[in-house]
């Protein structure tokens, strides 16, 4: 059974900017450039019936296109215990409306509600033994990041298949945003 998630793909110019950030942190397992994306909702395991229902509900979302921009580096769960290195995304109302509409589609399909608040970010690396001083040095090195804004014209439903060599992401649907929210 595939594990599903919904995401925004990044333009190549943004992936190139992010790839330039993928060094200088001891012991980091960097996300490959082709897998960099902005997750909107992780769903988990789904059968074929759930997948089909979800595709129909996601296709019914009608929202306008919008722009986003990268912000600054951060980590989860905290700077004292860095385990996931990420870059934040500009918090714009259109992004949160899209996440809200996706959440309604996901729960209407029968998946559990996501209770954690949405934190828009792109995962850059996973850290086995991240140290606070390494994170502080990394963050200082990239404090003057000046990213290029990028347009969001669509979002995607992916199936993630775990293998010994890492996850393989297969697109299961593309859902365009409209030009003016109604056409």
TrEMBL record:
Q: Name one Pfam family in it.
A: LigT_PEase
Residues annotated as the enzyme's active site: 37 (proton donor), 121 (proton acceptor)
Motif HXTX 2 covers: 121-124
Would I find Hydrolase among this entry's keywords?
yes
Q: Does the keyword Protease apply?
A: no
Q: Where is the Phosphoesterase HXTX domain?
A: 8-86, 94-168
What Enzyme Commission number(s) appear in the record?
Answer: 3.1.4.58
Give the source's domain of life in one word.
Bacteria
Q: What InterPro entries does the annotation carry?
A: Cyclic_Pdiesterase, Phosphoesterase_HXTX, RNA_CPDase
Which keywords annotate this record? Hydrolase
Q: Which reaction does it catalyse?
A: a 3'-end 2',3'-cyclophospho-ribonucleotide-RNA + H2O = a 3'-end 2'-phospho-ribonucleotide-RNA + H(+)
UniProt-listed SUPFAM superfamilies? LigT-like (SSF55144)
Enzyme superclass (EC): hydrolase
Where is the short sequence motif HXTX 1 located?
Answer: 37-40
Role description: Hydrolyzes RNA 2',3'-cyclic phosphodiester to an RNA 2'-phosphomonoester.
Family the entry assigns: Belongs to the 2H phosphoesterase superfamily. ThpR family.
The identity of this protein, by name, is: RNA 2',3'-cyclic phosphodiesterase
């Amino acid at each position: 059974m595939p594990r599903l998630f919904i995401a925004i793909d990044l333009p190549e110019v943004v992936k190139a900017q992010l790839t330039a950030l993928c060094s200088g942190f001891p012991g980091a397992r960097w996300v490959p450039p082709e897998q960099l994306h902005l997750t909107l909702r992780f769903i988990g395991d789904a059968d074929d019936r759930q997948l089909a229902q979800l595709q129909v509900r996601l296709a019914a979302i009608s929202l306008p296109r919008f722009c986003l921009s990268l912000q600054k580096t951060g980590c989860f769960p905290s700077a004292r215990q860095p385990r996931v290195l990420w870059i934040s995304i500009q918090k714009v109302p259109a992004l949160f409306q899209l996440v809200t509409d996706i959440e309604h589609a996901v729960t209407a399909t029968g998946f559990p509600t996501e209770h954690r608040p949405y934190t828009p970010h792109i995962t850059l690396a996973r850290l086995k033994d991240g140290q606070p001083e390494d994170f502080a040095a990394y963050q200082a090195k990239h404090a003057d990041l000046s990213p290029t804004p990028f347009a969001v014209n669509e979002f995607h439903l992916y199936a993630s298949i775990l293998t010994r060599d890492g996850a393989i992401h297969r697109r299961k649907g593309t859902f365009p945003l409209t030009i003016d929210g109604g056409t």
